[in-house]
Records
---
Amino acid sequence: MTMLFLLLCPLAVALFLLVFKSRFAREIALSASVAELLASLYLAWGFDSQGGVQFAINQAWIPSLGINFSVGVDGISLLLVLLTTVLTPFIILSSFSMSNSRPSSFYGLILLMQMALVGVFVARDGFLFYLFWEIALLPIWFISLIWGGEGRRRITLKFFIYTLTGSLFMLVGLVYLYLQTPGQHSFELEAIYAAGQSLPAMEQGLLFWALFVAFAIKMPIFPFHTWQPDTYVVAPAQGTMLLSGIMLKMGIFGVIRWLIPVVPLGVQEWSHVAIILSVIGIIYASGIAIVQNDFKRLIAYSSIAHVGLIAAGLMTLSQAGMQGAVIQMLSHGILVFSLFYIAEIFFERTGSRVLSGLGGIRNAAPVLSSVFIIVMLGSVALPFTSGFVGEFLLLKALVQYQFATGAIAALTIILGAVYMLRAFQKSMSGELNSNTNDFYDLTTREKVILFPMVVLIIGIGVHPTPLLEISGAAVDNILSVMANYSASTN
Amino acid sequence: MVGLDILISLIPGLPLLGFLMVSLFNKHLSHAMAAGIACGSVLVSFALSVLTFSQLLSLPVEQRSFHVLLSEWISTGNISANISFLIDPLSAIMLLVITGVGLVIHVYSVGYMHGDPGFNKFFSYMNLFVFFMLLLVMGSNYLLMFVGWEGVGLCSYLLIGFWFRNDAYNLAANKAFIMNRIGDLGLLLGVILIFIHTGSFEYADVFAGIPGMDGGIITLIAILLFIGATGKSAQIPLYTWLPDAMAGPTPVSALIHAATMVTAGVYMVVRNNLLYSLAPFALEIILVIGLATALFAATIALTQNDIKKVLAYSTVSQLGLMFVALGLGAFSSGIFHMVTHAFFKALLFLGAGSIIHALHGEQDIRQMGGLKKFLPLTHLTFFIAVLAISGIPPFAGFFSKDEILAHAFAHQPLVWGLAMLSSLLTVFYMFRLYFLTFYGQARASAQKMQAIHESPGNMTIPLIILAVLSVTGGFLNVPEILGGSAWLHQFLEPVTGASHAAVTVHPLSHATEYVLMGIVVAFSAVVIYFAYQIYMVKKSIPAAEGAPSGALQNLVYNKYYVDEFYQMIISRPLHWISEKLDVVVERLGIDRLVNSTGVTVVEGSKVLRLLQYGSIGVYIFVMVVSVVVLLALSLIN
Amino acid sequence: MQTTAGIPMDYYIWLSAILFTIGVLGVLYRRNAIIIFMCIELMLNPVNLLMVAFSNCLRDVNGQVFVFFIMAVAAAEVAVGLAILVLIYRNAHTTDINFLNRLKW
Amino acid sequence: MNAIYIISGLGFLALLAEVVNLKKWLAPVIYIGLLAALAMLSRDWNNPAYYFGDMLFIDNTSVLFTALIIVISVFWFWMSGEYFREQPHQTDRSALILFVVLGAMIMVSYNNMTTLFLGIEILSLSLYTLAGSKKESLLSNEASFKYFLMGAFATGFLLMGIALIYGATASFNITEIAGYLASGNLTLPAFFYTGMFLVLVGLAFKMSAVPFHFWAPDVYEGSPVAITAFMSTVVKIAAVAAFYKMFSFCFGSLQSSWIPALQVIAVLTLIVPNITAVVQKNTRRMLAYSSVGQVGYILLAIIAGNAASSGAILYYLAAYCFASIAAFSVLQKVEENHGFRGLAKRNPLLALVMTIALLSLAGIPPLPGFFGKYLVLSQALQSGYTGLVIVAVIASLISVYYYFMVILAMYTEEQEGVKFPISLSYKVLIVTVLLITVLAGLFPEQLIGLLA
Amino acid sequence: MSLYIFYFLSFVAVLSALMVVFSRNPVHSVLYLIITFFAIAGHYVLLNAEFLAVVHVIVYAGAIMVLFLYVIMLLNLNEAMEPHKSALLKASAIICAGLLMIVFVGALKGSALIAQPVSSGGDDIGSVKSLGSVMFTDFLLPFEISSVLLLVAMVGAVMLGKSEKKSEAE
């Protein structure tokens, strides 16, 4: 029931808002997202971290094509659902100060997006997964298009087509797997696993690429990332938050759920390439972030770097790597949301996100400054912040995988510090200038948004164990698939 | 009676609490209350440290270790890191130094920071620093040490950039953080490797596992950890942040950049003495780098005119000396020097702070002089500190430095020679500083001289306390030949003893030791005389900025252009590469490639649409051709 | 195989092919819409001929019946086609097919 | 079968309405007639039978295609009602349209070359006139003329093909021909294959498959918009159904000989129009190219030649037709009101409907266009045509570009011009089409299952 | 004997067909086309399809070509108004048609009929009687729909041909 509510509540409210334009759109949307949050917390409450898939619903949908409405959560799904439901109310809240000529559509699209994101994370049917995956693309595209900034037409179109390219290859891959399922074909997760695992190495390798490219584009991993910085910059703040905070996790989640256990041989064969690309991406994106002057663009590149580390760690196929990836997904979601919100606050106050035009904000806004420092520390993975736990686990996995790779990837802790400190210094320190003269400190609403994030950043950093426990069983499951598989082939 | 576990947990817990209270209620607390909370928390911490220390002492030697498990931190799969504390002789000594010196400096700061708008913030940061520093030394595992390690770096960053309106200070803060991070990278990799090869982060488990490890790995780990140390303890090549870090308020320089944080590297190496003892190559590296740093920094200090810069380079140099000790395998000597150095260097900085305070921010020694009569107490304590750092018996520095030199001689006379050279240079520049500051003509502007005054009590009392410690600190470890019992050495034995199996410290004959002592003292006296001749008799004043000077002097004055060198080989290329990555690779390369697929389609579209020529003749023509082709294809089939 | 008149079936096929090709040639060669239209009629005739020949050859009446329908269609097409041509001529005063090229690209 | 009687009767009625001056009653009569035809169709469901000797064969497949044609026609009349009323020759046009429907119905149920040929001609001749029905417009004239001339030319090839096949098999009856070909113990004369390929050309022309598609963009652009809508839906269904029946059923046993050619045609049909559409500024012309491009996917299903192909084709056509009807309904209103720029502000409902329609055409889930493409591609993949599938995927990516350009124009550009109202009936129409589209996307099983 | 008649008729048909294509005057084209039709009618006679031959002459020569001629004269087309294609286009048209011919040659050469007669119509398959019986039994439906076809053509032609002013006045 809760599962259905999680999917239907935002959908229903979204449709309501899209069809009947309401004057209280934002209040309605906020309530819906809070209800969603409560529902997901209820889910977490009843979740048994030792159990397998829970709250499952499996209903035939298109039986002739072997497609079922099959949803359920395991630990990893649950955490990502929580990330989605936690961030969405804050994203909605963050938009309250936005001048918006079509609020009803805006919030409708955000809720639609939430539905799709939750759907992606809970789907246990290949087709359903693809469906939600694609549906998620539409609202965000419209949000970026309609409420976006300069150059949005070209950029959002590129974004859409680029990500669609990947998705279509994924679809081809999924259909191929579907056709390999024995008897009456099925998209059921287990069936797809069985089908993929029974394929010879060569085909698994090809399938790896068909699926991986989709995920790599979504994350994005170097060199499939060029849609991302432009899109982040041009999208409205809430769009960017959705994109970076939650949506890019779809790609990582895809790798965990729909790639590694599906084609274990293919993954084993090609994970090295994926790791190399990811590690290049870390250094490359960090390097570019260093010279960015637009704060949003800087965050965008930093996000590529972070995601590169996640992907690299994940591809080591180790317990630490996978756990690190999961926890880092949550952490990154929170951090990047906060960063983009801070960027938005700059923009609202000064009309600019250009770092060289800011400065001295610390004088005027000590609370914001403190929050920024904490978020920044999380971003550079200082211990006792959420960023550290994941990054440490990921680096551990990478070092274990290969020392040199790990060492290169670990450069991120230096480069990350370089660009984040630079951003902080340029925007916050120094004397106030003509742009920032009228800067004022956080309003109550902004505090309501940012303080919980700060609490989460430090909370997860100091006590990550509950989260790690939730995902532990699921991660072990996936790893045992790999282990069984390599045991049976050897 | 509360359990000792809880008391131990409170040692770092209280400063954390202080930090939280002061920072969360920043606006609502008066300066006095904030100062009270901050100093009070450190005071209680200190008291608890003393209590813990006494508890430790009351136990037999082999049981002197408390392990307190506070909670689980990261736990997944086979990875398990706890928040747990280890109190053993080494951490107990560190506790005392940190909370003790920390307390003194907290009190001093109340006076020094008086009236600063960021007063509360300052104390919250200071408390946070104490918390992290305590975590660093108390943590019972590598990961917790790393937490403290990074945490103190953070506080250092926050406090260097404390006066954030000044962009130069901010840049200094960034530089400190980033250079520390370079070191941290090494440390982190080392820690990860340790875990991978021993399966645990806990010191106890790791030390048990180390002997079974491959020698190459041990050396690699040792070097990686030492990279961490070079960052935090400002050794070549990562030392340049420390002089810049003097941008922070002077108490910060005293606490963080002289007494405690920068010695974390020393602590870490001593903590891992077993590991290092099994990696002789790493020890060699430490020795060489320590020696080089000691000499290099000392020469720079000779020419500096900023009072804090001189002290900063002196710190670098002294830290180098400590690493020389570590490199020689004389771990307890390193700790000994660290302790005494904490006393007299903190005193020097606080004294300098007092001077700066008195002169309203003036830091250039060329603008000082003749301050003896205006600041008598400061002068006296400063003089004690100068004597201590110069190794004049019976001040603290004499004992600790002498021990290191003795070990050096035993290892290799050349090492001894170089180490002694550096310590003689130290003597020279310290006396140069001392003479230029307190004697001769008052060169400060009249305006500044008018308002000059001795610092208030809450600043001078700390000076006195530290002065006493600088005088007596050496008696902690009076060597046997001077009739002492080398108490500290004995006390640390449970910790450092682990390395004895692998590292043999050659004992020197008593005669040799006496001779060495004599030589050092004699030479020091000569150097003092020279300094006296130059600065008291000839009354020479360092040249003003831009005055012509010899190439060598220029080189040294400009710190060997190391900053510029780094700028040239790291910073600028990094920027250049980043710029090129952004503009060339990203926009003209990858993105262009992506866009070009789109452009190709659009261009293709422009071409293909011409096919739709509009004229029926053409359409039919193409149709017929298609039919022909189709039929021809069918024929071929 | 031969027709009842003793002429080999191949001959009719060849003849039809030639006439059909001439029709196609006319469509390609001329620009006057009416002539082109006539040439299309010229293409239909060999089809008729072929049908009849096959019908004869196969002794199957269906082929001839089909020819009636082709004729009916041809007549209907001519009616509509010429109506369109007249309409265009009324608006454009030309029957040149190349003149009608506003719709393109 | 009765449906065919009803539709032809309706056609005559429409002509009579002019004579007896009952024009006002015409529209309701047509609706009732179409619905009655639809009801009659249900009697043929699960009741395959030959009619008129063996001229027609009505089985479930043809029933569904017919039903689709009639349903689309209902919506078409609804959509074009207002436009029609303002034009002369209302009854003539209605009659011609009904005859097109008749031709289309014959084309989906034919069992004999003769019926096929006559069905095609009834349909084509009506369309030639309808395309030119905006008589004063030179563009309309041109469209009509191009369509006519090329159509007649293509008919020549079709007939030549039929004649050659007749010569080789001595029959016009496709069931007989199929049986004859399937018997397999004979060697066919070479000219049979020529005939088959000429038939392919003739039918491909009607379907507007590349390279026989040249008429389509020009005719779609020049004709009155309602007629374009009709051509791109009903006519396409009929052409596709005829092609499918001819090649999958009649020539099914000779797959190996026509599949290579069809593959080439499919690839061209996927690539050429989709690329060409990219730079189109005129939305109607863009939709024309898109409609040509959509045929490529259907060809893919025909090539795949699975048991499930007919279901896939039917679903694809239904999805495509509903989206097209929606798109053209909007287009019709928008062309009268300053184009698509800034439509979202001027009439959000139309913008929404257009967006959904375009998304469906582009194959974005969960809209039916996606399921259509999915079915087609999965079948092609199942039959091992991976290369073709990849071409189709690339083509559909390209198509996203030009569909989305319209959406961009609607949502991001500003256009001077006031909001414009649309009638209630029109609103109901487009909302209905929208709902059908969305529901068909959410519950595809029901439609796919019909032919399973 | 009939072979010679075949050759003669074929020669006439091909030659006049070519003249249709190549004569400059539209009226001449029409006349040549009529000759072609007559030649083909001759073929029908040769093939025992006398009824068809008669119908052919009536429909094509009598109705269709008259219509053509009527339109040409209505539009007053003559040699002077005849648009000309460039030599290049003409050449390419000829080459293209030549290619089509070659393909046909390739496809049709050596073809032998395999199919056996399905309905044994005997020698009188071309007679009115046999045609009629088939037309109104087997081909009843096509016969009926061709009425629709003609109706469509009629309605269409009228609709297009009607003067617009009149319709506006309605």
Note: Chain D touches chain E through 48 residues (CB under 8 Å).
---
Amino acid sequence: MTTLSNDPAPRLDRAAIAKRAARDLVDGSTVNLGIGIPAMCADFLPDGVELLYHAENGILGFKELSAPGEGDPNLMDAGGKFPKLVPGMAFFDSVESFSLIRGGHIDVTVLGALQVSRNGDLSNWMIPKRGIGSIGGAMDLAANAKKVIIAMEHNVRGDLAKIVDECTFPLTARACVDEVITDIAVIEIDRKNDRVILRETAPGWSFDDVQARTEARLVADGDVGSMA
Amino acid sequence: MTTLSNDPAPRLDRAAIAKRAARDLVDGSTVNLGIGIPAMCADFLPDGVELLYHAENGILGFKELSAPGEGDPNLMDAGGKFPKLVPGMAFFDSVESFSLIRGGHIDVTVLGALQVSRNGDLSNWMIPKRGIGSIGGAMDLAANAKKVIIAMEHNVRGDLAKIVDECTFPLTARACVDEVITDIAVIEIDRKNDRVILRETAPGWSFDDVQARTEARLVADGDVGSMA
Amino acid sequence: MIGGFGGAGGQPTRLMLALRDLGVGDLTIIGNVAGISKTTGYGWPDHLDPIDQGMFFESGQATKITCSFPVPGTTNPLSDIEKAWREGNAEVDIVPQGTLIERIRAAGAGIPAFYTPTGVGTPVAEGKEHRDFDGRTYLMEEALSADFALIRAQKADTRGNLQYIGTSRAFNPAMATAAAVTIVEVDEIVEPGGIDPERVGTLSTYVDRIVVREAGDPLP
Amino acid sequence: MIGGFGGAGGQPTRLMLALRDLGVGDLTIIGNVAGISKTTGYGWPDHLDPIDQGMFFESGQATKITCSFPVPGTTNPLSDIEKAWREGNAEVDIVPQGTLIERIRAAGAGIPAFYTPTGVGTPVAEGKEHRDFDGRTYLMEEALSADFALIRAQKADTRGNLQYIGTSRAFNPAMATAAAVTIVEVDEIVEPGGIDPERVGTLSTYVDRIVVREAGDPLP
């Protein structure tokens, strides 16, 4: 795998990754946000965008999070935090919650990843050397949401690539990822045409800078924009 | 098929069949009553017996029926009649209603029949020469209730037998019937030992009288009692 | 798909009448107890004239129905569905009720097929895969979806969450999940919060169009 | 089976403590998010000490768990389940959450097996039947039942109907249907009619025993 350092410019912080990912969430969508950076998207929705948030444990339509550690244990989200009651919410059980997911009724899910392959395979539930992991709702979401956005750091431990030719970690789902938003780039996985398209780079980062930190071969399709 | 007339004594009327069937319903059971004679069982429960009635359209725990044609269309039973609201009732949808049935959670169902075979096969949804019929919940109930009681008239069109060696009408379910209660007899289908046991006869009816009106060969197992 | 159980409660009667008046043809209907109310009064209070799915066969708009209970026990008078069937103008696909609702639920829940014990050894098993699990035989049944679901609820909020009442649930919640376009007929539309979050029977995600009854509509 | 989602809400914590104190061994646990609260605080308000299914591995009573989320993302400190697993004292069967709940639901609903798209091409697909429907590949998954379900509800009526609140439903209603004996822990028991018939979350048919919390119990 590619390992580089000497970044040409600062990388985006986690909040900035979430903020960029939030820009791709379309008003009125039913959305499931994974834990970590994905969950932070909720703090950065563009004006006028309202989403219908779904959490695996059985809520649709929640919004504001209480501070972690406060709140009512019977009003939890799937990340173990406690949202507030919002008019228009609905509660349901896990059977219905996963019928919604598996039935393809979630418009977008934003998830974290350990690896994404050039054809959109996703690994995000187990590091092989640990030997044990947690799947939760990730396999159902990745396999069945209409759109899968990955929000993550581009590299790990120095400059080890996470966007790879083939995932070496156990898979979560095959050929599921549509878009990857990282601290240095926005990348589209164009599965239909078997291309990995670099759409945007962080300020100060060139195509070649991003390619050097990405194992999968990138292509441009028109101009490469700026994440700023 | 056996055809006889010259009955040795009067046959029970439909209400009396229902009354006898009701005696086999155990306190606290979850029970689904089919239309016709089975539905009439509710009028003849022995003192101290309380049942949890289930109707396919999504109620558990209803009791008194309103007069037919009255009542609230949103409080209907599966027979299209309108029960009254009873404390402790529950409403649910058809998915849950048939999960309850198919999952084997109905203790007893009482159904009508066109034919019952010696091994407990049941035909009750279509007369072949009509060419079209209605299944409704009958196949789910017959195949999956813990106990299937048939309440029906013993013969049809004169003395044509309905308790037969093999059903000639389209089946509802195989090997499902446990007990048949008719206007002249109570018959147990002992599937385990491949016997059709005559348990009781109507007053004035002998074993041979009932056998003569039954195609399947009957046996006694101890005394034959009276339905009175 | 047309929701409800059969009878007046939970049936999207106004939407059905609108569909009939629209006059579109070559319809395949999916329902449960279907087309028996007009001749038997099934599920309708005595003082009202029953309306049922038979109207689409009477009008010649429908050519096929998949349902569990298309004809009453008696044949006189014939229901509109049986009449059309006898005249060779209707294909009638009779499915056990539990299998029918589970196939619809499966379509909405991303399950292409499942196994059921119901129907083994009967005419409905013909041509179907049989398979044993733990010594019992089951049939494989496949998901059943539709282009449109016409359903009925008591009320909707402006997001599209639905609340049902009493036995009017029946096939409505599952059908809402299993059609490309779900249209719901309600008595009332309320602001978000006008439905208790504990009482939402169909999630807004499944609802595409809401039609509100006129105040004082005499239909149940 | 132990109900809830993971976290304090909907978890039958008093029943779990009672099971631990009972000391019975060789348990196989079925749960969802399991055993991560003690080390991460997951789903517990800050001022409370979290209690989770890990206790049965700490006590040596359990030898196996089937669940979707048995270990937190970080390894320091190790959860009781990961500790037992590393020491070779626990078999851990990790199932995608949607497959897990659907397998439990199937057991209660008389469905021995179904097909799901989830897990195809991943380690969970190993050894499972693959089958294509309409050009997409699915896995066959089988029903999952248990001898006992320990579940949690807000209240029960004396018939055994249960009412849930908020996100405390999760795995509880399905588990209630899938065990030979279902034991429920509630805050309150009421007369029939004390639960709105529109709000019954689990039908009395599924409930075998009801245990009522003591008034003022500090556990959530």
Note: Chain C touches chain A through 22 residues (CB under 8 Å).
